[in-house]
Design goal:
By secondary structure, the chain is α/β, with parallel strands linked by helices. The protein is built from 7 helices and 5 strands. The longest helix is centred in the middle third of the chain and has 16 residues, at 103-118. It starts with a strand and ends in a 19-residue tail after the last helix.
Length: 234
């Protein structure tokens, strides 16, 4: 019987490709999604369901968790509508206002709890350090520290390996990996603020569009706007 992996699946491109890689590695999938009051919560939840359907993950191995505390705490443009999202600039220095304070620690802790209940042996996350928005909780050092903490704080028979297979890839490489694996990139959603069409203005849209352009393929998602220089085929 195949080993089980808990995959943190936001519904975005990175987590979609991560799920595809976990599947290709021979794991059975258990998919976890978090609602935390983000602007595109409903659209992300739909992407989660669509990707889970694509991989035929049974209902008992799908978990949607509500982190209302993160919205109550605030401090991020993704959870506080009074904080404006700036025009996308993936190369800007510093931590952007779209950073949700310590969000990934909450996600990882929940993945660990569920993995222990399920008897899973692995946790997969779509962290990207090399070509991302600069979130401090997407770094390899943070992930390895959390892996050690998780294995110290769980039952002796629980041994969890943390995997972040995209950690040091550029977005174009992630696109190519997804295409090679047949990942349903058309079902994923990356935009921070649009739910019918991707806005084309936020950092996440810029990163995704740049990845597809550098990979030489068109993004299958609809965009309300595409920045100059990121148009497909130009």
């Amino acid at each position: 019987m195949a080993e089980l992996a808990v995959v943190s699946l936001s519904g975005g491109m990175d987590s979609c490709v991560t799920a595809a890689l976990a599947k290709a590695a021979g794991f059975e999938l258990a998919l976890l999604h978090a609602d935390y009051g983000q602007r595109t919560q409903a659209r992300e939840r739909r992407a989660f369901g669509d990707i889970a359907d694509f991989y035929c993950v049974p209902a008992h191995r799908r978990l949607i968790i509500g982190f209302d505390s993160l919205k109550a705490i605030g401090g991020s443009a993704l959870t506080d509508p009074t904080i404006a999202l700036p025009e996308g600039d993936p190369d800007r220095a510093g931590v952007p206002v779209s950073y949700v304070p310590f969000r990934n620690a909450h996600l990882l802790a929940t993945c660990v709890s569920w993995a222990e209940v399920l008897g899973a042996t692995a946790i997969f996350v779509g962290f990207v350090e090399e070509d991302s928005s600069g979130y401090p909780d997407c770094r390899e050092a943070f992930l390895r520290s959390f892996e050690q903490t998780a294995n110290l704080g769980t039952k002796p028979e629980t041994r969890l390996a943390f995997h972040a297979p995209l950690l040091h890839l550029r977005k174009a490489e992630i696109v190519r990996q997804g295409l090679a694996l047949g990942a349903p990139l058309h079902l994923s959603w990356s935009c921070y603020q649009g739910e019918t069409e991707a806005c084309g203005h936020c950092d996440s849209c810029h990163l995704r569009l740049r990845g597809f352009k550098e990979a030489g393929v068109a993004d299958p998602l609809p965009y309300a706007f595409i920045p100059e220089g990121l148009e497909p085929g130009r």
